[in-house]
């Protein structure tokens, strides 16, 4: 090969790599890092259901459908949160035009169809849970409802959809839907509420400028961290009633981080508390499903590599 051809080939390699990475935008726009809490609660719900279950329907397909569904939920939220994301300088896939709004709408519909409709083949209860999740995702993000912009609407939607419904999906793949299953989901619902409140704190100023009155924007750092800490304590009490040892293990380990955030009144410490909750719950899920560790490790390393090569960012960080 002549020298000038070799030189041109080498110079073009980074450009080709960048063009290839653009296709991966359609995977990482779904925010796979934020799917970890959903996967974890789903698996722990499955574990709890196994204590009372009579059969084991396909966990593999439930995991796949849940991943596609939650990707659609996150993408729908980004479509309606374009201006807020620009203000807060986050989630730049749509905000900076890496993916068009039109393509995002098509992609969202595609993900919902591929997840909600097949879920009914697993069982009627699973299908109904997915359908309820779809309704909540619409009311959470879409105008004129926009529960995400409301103090209690956003909190309630997250508690029910990302907490109770996700747990119930895992539980009902092993057992029938029951009031006992709803009771078992409550510790997870409250834990999700605590995590949600903490995630509103870094965006307080940006949210206020666009009229979003989230929990953090309404009550500030001190009151918000106090409520999130109380929710964790209450979740521990309920887990004791339910004899949910995996949850108790995780909640007891993460509680000091919430108390520390409350004492210091620092947003960074609140985010650390959130990460500790997700980490300890994920460890508990991995104990019962060791293959989950492989997904977490490969997902973390793959995401780090993608963001470094695509945007020169060090993301995600464990702490």
Provide key terms for this protein.
globular; 14 helices; mainly alpha; 80% helix; 319 residues; disordered N terminus
Give a quick account of the main beta sheet: strands, pairing sense, barrel closure: none
Beta-strand fraction estimate: under 5%
Order of helices and strands: HHHHHHHHHHHHHH
Average pLDDT, to the nearest integer? Answer: 89
DSSP helix count?
14
Structural class: mainly alpha
| Overall 3D form | globular
Helical fraction: over 70%
Distance between the termini: 48 Å
Q: State the total count of DSSP E strands.
A: 0
Number of domains: 1
**Stretches where pLDDT falls below 50 for ≥5 residues?**
3-11
> What's the gyration radius in Å?
20 Å
SSE order and pairing:
Elements: H1 3-28, H2 35-50, H3 59-80, H4 82-88, H5 92-95, H6 101-122, H7 124-141, H8 151-172, H9 179-199, H10 204-209, H11 215-242, H12 245-264, H13 267-288, H14 291-311
Helix pairs in contact: 1-14, 2-3, 2-8, 2-9, 2-13, 3-6, 3-7, 6-7, 7-8, 8-9, 8-11, 9-11, 9-13, 11-12, 12-13
